[in-house]
């Protein structure tokens, strides 16, 4: 079953107002710590502020009852007796979107529920104060905070070579070892490209890391014709564990299924995947110890003294440091304060990590200027840029620093809603509520014209627990990425056509000359319609091709029929009979593709067909 959007929010809010024995058991460690702090506070001040009203308490027992009955007003949490570095899940109601814009420079990945007019952040006491200064009534979601803390408590102990209690995620060292293992296992499909040093390595060759791209393509099919490139990075924000896990998951799917799964095979034959898994390794090794490090560790440009917390940390926010439209929103979309989470750096592209990425993109993407002047990138632009983050549950596209639509907006909306069908995140333009400047997706689109997206993963926490990651986030987003990969030939066009599902042959192995039946379901309905409405069209045609993608010169399209006799619906079962008398013995790829009444053809999907010269089954059957 697909998850309802923002189910997490409504669920946690309702739980936070009910105290059963079960939830008390979960909350009790948090409560004990919280109550101790509150006791100190009350002893000194004899007052505590609950839901904005000042009340006196005779005992902690009264507080305990209130703890169960209500979400506590944050003025208690923000009191100095409570650990300033402690992370809370805080929610605030806003009347005016201006308040959201006001706090945007302090946070990223705010979860905004437009219908309820709430904003939810994972932050510390300082972050909560910023929200209150913007006039917001802030409440702590104690149930969600407790669940997060139970998960995170074990981070302080354990094996230094992995992330304790988060066995599904890899450290920087483990990620590099995985990349090397891919190359060792698949030397003709995978290679590692060193794209330059991290900030720490640039300062001292004994420190830090090299940034490494895992490139996946079938080197045997390299030719003069350029293959579409899919650049996909993760870990730009160090504390976001899950995006790196999804990136590794895509590499596994492509490589482990090559020659086994027809789609994985043609995708690796016809495209290049450039996977920058750990884009901010210096920050990541801090985050691997359970700290909320988001930025890199540049303590010269981003010097920040004092206790390091989520809202007060050294370094530069790499996703505000990209050169295209750097610092364009007068401080609304990034911060000039060094300790802030969104500190943009002293100059555009000041950080080595940013420079490495910008330089590398220029080696793989052709430039199509000037998108910023309002001229659309050509709709047959091949390739795609993706930056994956967590945890706001969004599929985002440019622009991020202005609510004005880009000249390719219609194509972005269609493609974004197609991907969001799979992960059920909200599809929207990046600056639909508040701006960000100097971000990676605007830079890629604005500089090259390449289709550029940011996907924000599941909203349960920056350190998403492994059960949620493996059961929901990973499979849902791999499905979105497999879909995106099938559009790489023309991502501005193909998503506007219908998808090809259940692509099959009636027998996976045939003797030359035996006819077989090809079948598929051509479907135009798969859009996420949660944020606006995408028009769905009737299917008008379907074709099959053998060993050539439908847009290749060698393709000989075979018309497929509507099984019910007429192409008149947005979802059609289709079939065709394939004469195999002209096929050579061996393994063939059969592609199928549909078109709709808007005139758009969708991304193809494939299946294998094994053709043999004579039927040797008798030998297997008779002499095994
Ligand atoms: Zn991020």
Task: Based on the model shown, name its key terms.
624 residues; alpha+beta; Aminopeptidase; Immunoglobulin-like; 3 domains; 17 helices; disordered N terminus; binds zinc ion
Ordered list of secondary-structure elements with their pairings:
Blueprint: H1 7-16, H2 21-45, E1 48-50, E2 53-55, H3 60-69, H4 74-77, E3 88-93, H5 97-103, E4 111-113, E5 118-123, H6 125-133, E6 137-140, H7 142-152, H8 172-185, E7 190-197, H9 199-203, E8 210-216, E9 229-234, H10 241-256, H11 262-270, E10 272-276, H12 281-287, H13 352-364, E11 384-390, E12 394-397, H14 409-423, E13 426-429, H15 440-448, E14 452-457, H16 466-486, E15 499-505, E16 509-511, E17 516-523, E18 539-546, E19 558-559, E20 561-562, E21 571-578, E22 586-596, E23 605-612, H17 617-623
Parallel strand pairs: 9-10, 9-11, 11-14, 12-13, 16-23
Antiparallel strand pairs: 1-2, 3-5, 3-6, 4-5, 7-8, 8-10, 12-14, 15-17, 17-21, 18-19, 18-22, 20-21, 22-23
Helix pairs in contact: 2-3, 2-7, 10-16, 14-16
């Amino acid at each position: 079953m697909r998850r309802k959007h923002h189910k997490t929010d409504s669920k946690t809010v309702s739980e936070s107002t009910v105290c059963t024995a079960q939830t008390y058991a979960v909350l009790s460690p948090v409560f004990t710590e919280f109550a101790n702090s509150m006791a100190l506070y009350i002893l000194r001040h004899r007052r505590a502020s609950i839901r904005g009203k000042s009340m006196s308490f005779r005992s902690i027992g009264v507080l305990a009852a209130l703890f169960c009955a209500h979400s506590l007003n944050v003025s208690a949490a923000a009191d100095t007796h409570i650990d300033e570095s402690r992370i809370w899940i805080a929610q605030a109601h806003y009347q005016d979107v201006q308040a959201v814009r006001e706090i945007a420079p302090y946070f990223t990945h705010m979860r905004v529920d437009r219908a309820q007019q709430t904003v939810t952040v994972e932050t510390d006491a300082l972050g909560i104060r910023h929200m209150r200064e913007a006039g917001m009534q802030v409440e702590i979601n104690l149930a969600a905070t407790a669940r997060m803390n139970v998960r995170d408590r074990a981070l302080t102990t354990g094996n230094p070579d992995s992330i304790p209690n988060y066995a599904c995620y890899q450290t920087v060292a483990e990620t590099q070892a995985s990349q090397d293992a891919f190359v060792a296992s698949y030397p003709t499909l995978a290679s590692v490209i060193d794209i330059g040093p991290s900030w720490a390595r640039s300062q001292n060759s004994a420190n830090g890391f090299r940034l490494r791209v895992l490139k996946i393509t079938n080197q045997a099919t390299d030719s003069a014709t350029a293959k579409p490139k899919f650049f996909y990075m993760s870990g730009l924000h160090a504390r976001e564990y899950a995006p790196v896990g999804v990136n590794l998951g895509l590499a596994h799917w492509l490589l482990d299924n090559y020659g086994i799964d027809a789609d994985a095979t043609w995708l690796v034959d016809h495209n290049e995947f450039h996977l920058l898994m750990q884009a901010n390794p210096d920050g990541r090794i801090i985050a691997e110890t359970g700290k909320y490090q988001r930025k890199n560790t540049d303590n010269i440009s981003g010097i920040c003294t004092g206790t390091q917390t989520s809202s007060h940390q050294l370094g530069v926010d790499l996703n505000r440091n990209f050169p295209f439209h750097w610092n364009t929103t007068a401080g609304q979309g990034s911060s000039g304060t060094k300790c802030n989470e969104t500190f943009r750096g002293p100059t555009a592209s000041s950080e080595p990590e940013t420079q490495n990425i910008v330089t590398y993109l220029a080696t793989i993407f052709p430039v199509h200027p000037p998108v910023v002047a309002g001229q659309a990138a050509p709709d047959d632009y091949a390739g795609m840029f993706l930056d994956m983050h967590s945890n706001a549950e969004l599929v985002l596209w440019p622009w991020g620093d202005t609510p004005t639509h880009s000249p390719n907006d219609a194509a972005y909306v269609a493609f974004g809603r197609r991907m969001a069908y799979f992960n059920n995140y909200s599809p929207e333009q990046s600056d639909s509520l508040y701006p960000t400047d100097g971000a990676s997706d605007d830079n890629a689109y604005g500089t090259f014209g390449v289709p550029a997206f940011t996907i924000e993963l599941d909203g349960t926490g920056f350190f998403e627990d492994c059960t949620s990651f493996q059961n929901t986030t990973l499979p849902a987003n791999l499905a979105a990425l497999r879909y995106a990969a099938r559009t790489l030939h023309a991502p501005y066009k193909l998503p506007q056509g219908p998808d090809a599902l259940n692509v099959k042959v009636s027998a996976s192995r045939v003797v030359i000359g035996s006819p077989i039946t090809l079948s598929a379901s051509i479907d135009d309905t798969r859009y996420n319609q949660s944020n606006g409405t995408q028009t769905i069209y009737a299917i008008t045609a379907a074709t099959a091709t053998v060993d050539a993608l439908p847009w290749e010169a060698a393709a000989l399209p075979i018309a497929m029929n509507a099984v019910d006799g007429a192409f008149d619906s947005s979802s059609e079962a289709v079939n065709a009979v394939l004469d195999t008398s002209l096929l050579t013995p061996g393994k063939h790829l059969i592609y199928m593709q549909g078109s709709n009444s808007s005139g758009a053809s969708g991304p193809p999907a494939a299946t294998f067909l094994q053709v043999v010269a004579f039927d040797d089954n008798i030998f297997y059957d008779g002499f095994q």
